[in-house]
Structure formats: structure tokens, C-alpha cells
Amino acid sequence: MLKHAFNQFRFMGILDGTSLVVLLFIAMPLKYIWNLPEVVSVVGALHGGIFTIYCVAIIYATIFVKWPFRFTIGGFLVAFIPFGNFVLDSRLKKWKQQQLTTTVATYN
Fold first, then answer.
1. Which residues of 22-59 are buried (b: 16+ CB within 10 A; e: fewer)?
2. pTM for the full model?
3. I want to staple 12 with a disulfide (CB 3.0 to 4.6 A). Which of 3, 35, 38, 57 is the partner?
4. What whole-number distance in Å separates Cα of residue 91 and Cα of residue 2?
């Protein structure tokens, strides 16, 4: 359950970060430069749905992974920063590796 919640959160974070980047750097220029507002309507709705699921994944991971509260707050805040989810993902990988190293060292 722990590994599943952690990996699910990471997947949703990457998906949310990707949808934000597509919204900001592809859909918005299409709307304002080439006068195609329909693209923002579609991509914005998709991003909103993904963001909602991402917020649920934050809560789910907080409960089951029992990580530091700073990851919960950070997970929510980086959702509003372009490429923020990708930075958080790399930090989560490092944190998980440290947890595994600490666990192995404890048992030896």
C-alpha cells in the first residue's frame, strides 16, 4: 500500500505538471496569438480534472506514506508553478532513496 500510494502520487504529479505546462505554453499562446480560445477550454478543463485528482492523491499519499508535512504543503504549492512538479518529483525520489538507505542501515 505504501509503495502504491507513493508511486501513484508521483505519477499524478507528473501528469499535473505536464498538463499545466501544456496549458500555459501551448494552449494559452494558441488562444491569444492565433485566436483559438477553444483549445484553452478543452485543455483547461482537462487540467482542472487532473488537478482535482492530484489533490486527492496528495491526501491519499499523506495518509498512507506518512511523509513529512512539508511534502503535503509543497505538493500543493508546486502545482501552481510551471515545472514545479518535476522538481518535487526529483526531491521525492531522493527522499525515498534516503528512507530506503536508512531502513537498510537500521536492520544491519
1. ebeeebeeebeeeeeeebbeebbeebeebbeebeebbe
2. 0.86
3. 57
4. 18
Task: Cell numbers for 40, please give them.
Answer: 484553452
Span 33-56, pLDDT tens digits: 999 999 999 999 999 999 999 999
Please write down the long-range contacts of 57-62, taking CB distance under 8 Å and 24 or more positions apart.
Answer: 57/8, 57/9, 57/12, 57/13, 58/9, 60/5, 60/8, 60/9, 61/5, 61/6, 61/8, 61/9
Nearest to 9 by CA among 83, 70, 85: 85
* Per-residue pLDDT at 15: 97
